Amino acid sequence: MSTYTPKAGEIQRAWHVVDAEGMVLGRIATEVATILRGKHKPTYTPNLDTGDHVIIINADKVVLTSNKAERKMVYRHSGFPGGIKSRTYADFLADQPAEAVRKTVKGMLPKTRLANAQINKLKVYAGPTHPHESQNPTPIVFEHARARVSD
Q1: What digits encode the pLDDT tens for the residues 7-25?
Q2: At what angle do helices 97-107 and 25-37 cross, to 10 degrees?
Q3: Closest to 100 measured CA to CA, from 113, 116, 85, 87
């Protein structure tokens, strides 16, 4: 029996929208990374980009569990000696929520050239509106990614 490999013209790409309000950042990132890679499809091929487009709205309302917002650090380096900068994830989420979510999802993709094509299919917006209504995105709800509220 021969292995089926989809051709470039046979790949069907859908658009999905995810509302991140009240969702745990890591859990939503793993689910979105799976959709971007195309692992939810029966035609998944590891060496081809068979994934779908994903729009994340309300990125400013994601939640980090425990005290990770204050404990987890984000680093960047200028390339010069002593040029490392760090700040907490709470500051990063407050200043650039869309970039924080995008960076988290990118970290869950493979570290190959294929990941560059996959991350380009991700659109993240801090607010509830997005300019991709003409693509008719289907809403996706991840119930296990909701943050538990303890009273």
Answers
A1: 888 899 999 999 999 999 9
A2: 60
A3: 87
Q: Residue 149's pLDDT band (boundaries 50, 70, 90)?
A: low
CA 12 vs CA 36, 53, 63: distances in Å: 13, 11, 32
- Please write the tens of the pLDDT for every residue from 45-54: 999 999 999 9
Going by DSSP bridges, is the β-strand pair 53-57/84-88 parallel, antiparallel, or unpaired?
unpaired
CA angle 134, 110, 16 (to 5 degrees): 20
* Cβ burial, residue 137 (10 Å; 0-12/13-18/19+): buried
Q: What domains sit in the chain, N to C, each tagged with a CATH number?
A: 14-145 (3.90.1180.10)
Q: Using an 8 Å Cβ cutoff, are 28 and 21 in contact?
A: no
